Amino acid sequence: MNAIKQLLQDLDPVLHERGRLAIVSVLAAAERLTFTELRDALEMTDGNLSVHLQKLEEKGYVVIDKLFVGRKPQTGCRLTRVGRRAFSSYLDRLEAIVRQGRGQAPA
C-alpha cells in the first residue's frame, strides 16, 4: 500500500466529517464555549450541532456540561484531553499527506 493511501486510511473518521472537524477546530481555540456560541460561530442548526456533539461526546473527545447562569440554563462544550490529542494527531496526518503530495520527505 502506498504511503498516502495508508495516511488517508489512518485519518480518524469521527474527526474527518466536515461538521465535527469544524466543531473541534473551534473548540481547540477556546477553553469552553456555550452551545449558542458554537452554533452561531459555525452557523449550524441546533439539531445538526447536537447530533455532531453527541458523536464527539460518545468518542470521549468533547464534554458537555449544563450550568445555570442566573436563572437561565446554559449548555457548555469543551474538548477533553483525549479530544485535543486526537485533533493534534489528525492535523499531523493531514500535514504528512500534504508533504507526501508535494514530494517532500516525512518530517
Layout of helices and strands:
Elements lengths: L2 H7 L3 H4 L1 H11 L4 E2 H8 L3 H14 L2 E8 L2 E8 L1 H21 L6
Helix pairs in contact: 1-6
Account of the protein in words:
Strand 2 and strand 3 form a beta hairpin. Helix 1 runs antiparallel to helix 6 (81-101). This protein has a three-stranded antiparallel sheet with strand order 1-3-2. By secondary structure, it is α+β, with helices and mostly antiparallel strands. The chain has a single domain, classed as Winged helix-like DNA-binding domain superfamily/Winged helix DNA-binding domain (Arc Repressor Mutant, subunit A), CATH 1.10.10. The chain has six helices and three strands, in the order αααβααββα. Helices cover 61% and strands 17% of the residues. The mean pLDDT is 92.
Largest sheet: 3 strands, antiparallel
**Topology pattern, helix = H, strand = E:** HHHEHHEEH
End-to-end distance:
20 Å
Low-confidence stretches: none
| CATH class value | Mainly Alpha
Portion of residues in beta strands equals 15-25%
What percentage of residues falls in helices of 4 or more residues?
A: 55-70%
Order of the strands making up the biggest sheet? 1-3-2
> On the 0-100 scale, what is the average pLDDT?
92
Let me know the number of strands.
Answer: 3
Estimate the global geometry from the Cα principal axes.
elongated
Rg computed from alpha carbons, rounded to a whole number of angstroms: 16 Å
Class of secondary structure makeup: alpha+beta
**Which fold name is given in CATH as the topology?**
Arc Repressor Mutant, subunit A
Tell me the name of the CATH homologous superfamily.
Answer: Winged helix-like DNA-binding domain superfamily/Winged helix DNA-binding domain
Give the name of the CATH architecture. Orthogonal Bundle
Number of helices: 6
Number of domains: 1
